[in-house]
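Quick one, tokens below. Sequence please?
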């Protein structure tokens, strides 16, 4: 059995005890037993399908229980799903108790808020839009309780990993307390709206059968989002594998790809690009040197200057890279950046000697990011420069080698936020004062 911190076990025990205390008033005369049984069974079935097949959680039935049942009864709806589910991860008992107590306490809090605001009467009378106020407050209470519970287990040492707050996808390993709440609000609000529709139809003359029809579009939506996250995870895995291969081949530039991706994002955001394009430019920065997989390792790791013939071989890497990623459709214009990131505004770059506006904008962004990181990193053929010296060199070469807009955008972003790249292997080397480049030489762009 895994070693679970004692404080984590104590937190789970306190949450489970709280659920017992909240459910103590049950049963009472207001509880429709058949409705509780149906909702509990329906939630267990949905939770099994969604968790096993789609890798997420499904809250509409749970929130419908909060809108239809008294709080003590609503707290019982998620218990069968958690207690009957198969869980192979250890510690099994502790995880099972956590999976039962966590949603039970959250739905109890949502039901308590909903009933105290007169939500039950609004649902029965179908008073729109007044029914939305208690329902919205209940959803907020639901998210708040989940955030407190998950934050507590994180603070206790993550002895029992919290289940994802998002209805689909995975949560980051160590999210912040504030992020736990705000990250869950939007998706849980959508599930809350579906749960409210279920509750209203349930109380209408059409009955529970009509309420069940609400689940069909929600299941379809859940499937679509799960497919999206799976595809996105596959994209990330593809990029990680390519970058790791480059890092293994060229140890001197380990971490360079990730930092160029970060600098490209800084430039793109400073230029006001939309999120989708920022993401593409991040891919472009990360993969810009993937063509080095086709370059002999002895050239990549050679100390000192390259011969003209060796430089011609090195200068083939953009074309190699473009050929490697040509079939990866999700990269979009990032493929053009991989091919043209060594072009220069005055036409003296490679591989095609493009000039000015002939160079794709994404390539001009990556060119500046690449040169900046090359100058601020220690390599086999050059020592690291301070950030200020690198920016000054970029400004000197703006208009000839680099697009002035991109240089200004990076300088403004660095001046406001600073440069805080991820820690990588080559950052253990000390930063030394920059050596002045030879007249007319490139601004420090990497090989």
């Amino acid at each position: 059995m895994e070693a679970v911190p004692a404080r984590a076990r104590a937190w789970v025990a306190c949450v489970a005890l709280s659920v017992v205390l909240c459910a103590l008033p049950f049963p009472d005369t207001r509880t429709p037993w058949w409705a509780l049984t149906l909702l509990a069974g329906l939630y267990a079935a949905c939770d099994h399908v969604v968790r096993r097949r789609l890798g997420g959680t499904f809250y509409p039935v749970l929130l419908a229980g909060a809108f239809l049942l008294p709080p003590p009864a609503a707290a019982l709806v998620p218990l069968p799903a958690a207690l009957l589910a198969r869980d192979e991860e250890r510690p099994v008992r502790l995880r099972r108790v956590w999976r039962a107590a966590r949603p039970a306490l959250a739905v109890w809090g949502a039901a308590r808020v909903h009933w105290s605001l007169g939500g039950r009467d609004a649902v029965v009378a179908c008073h729109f839009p007044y029914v939305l106020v208690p329902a919205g407050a209940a959803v907020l209470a639901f998210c708040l309780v989940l955030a407190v519970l998950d934050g507590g287990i994180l603070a206790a040492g993550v002895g029992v990993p919290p289940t994802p707050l998002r209805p689909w996808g995975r949560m980051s390993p160590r999210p912040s307390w504030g992020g736990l709440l705000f990250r869950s609000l939007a998706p849980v609000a959508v599930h809350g709206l579906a749960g409210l529709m279920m509750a209203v139809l349930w109380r209408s003359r059409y009955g529970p059968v009509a309420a069940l029809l609400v689940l069909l579009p929600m299941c379809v939506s859940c499937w679509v989002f799960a497919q999206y996250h799976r595809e996105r995870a596959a994209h990330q895995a593809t990029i990680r594998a390519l970058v790791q291969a480059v890092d293994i081949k060229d140890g001197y530039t380990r971490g360079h790809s990730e930092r160029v991706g970060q600098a490209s994002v800084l430039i793109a955001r400073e230029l006001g690009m939309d999120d989708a394009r920022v993401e593409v430019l991040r891919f472009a920065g990360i993969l810009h040197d993937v063509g080095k997989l086709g370059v002999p390792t002895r050239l990549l790791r050679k100390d000192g200057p390259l011969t003209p013939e060796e430089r011609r071989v090195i200068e083939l890497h953009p074309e190699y890279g473009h050929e490697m990623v040509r079939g990866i459709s999700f990269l979009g214009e990032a493929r053009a950046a991989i091919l043209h990131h060594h072009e220069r505004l005055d036409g003296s770059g490679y591989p095609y000697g493009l000039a000015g506006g002939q160079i794709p904008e994404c390539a001009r962004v990556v060119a500046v990011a690449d040169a900046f990181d090359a100058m601020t990193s220690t390599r086999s053929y050059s020592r690291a420069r301070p950030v200020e010296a690198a920016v000054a060199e970029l400004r000197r070469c703006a208009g000839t080698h680099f697009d002035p807009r991109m240089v200004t955008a990076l300088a403004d972003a660095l001046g406001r936020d600073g440069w805080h790249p991820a820690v990588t292997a080559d950052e253990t080397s000390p930063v030394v004062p920059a050596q002045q480049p030879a007249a007319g030489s490139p601004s420090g762009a990497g090989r």
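The longest helix spans residues 215-249. The radius of gyration is 28 Å.
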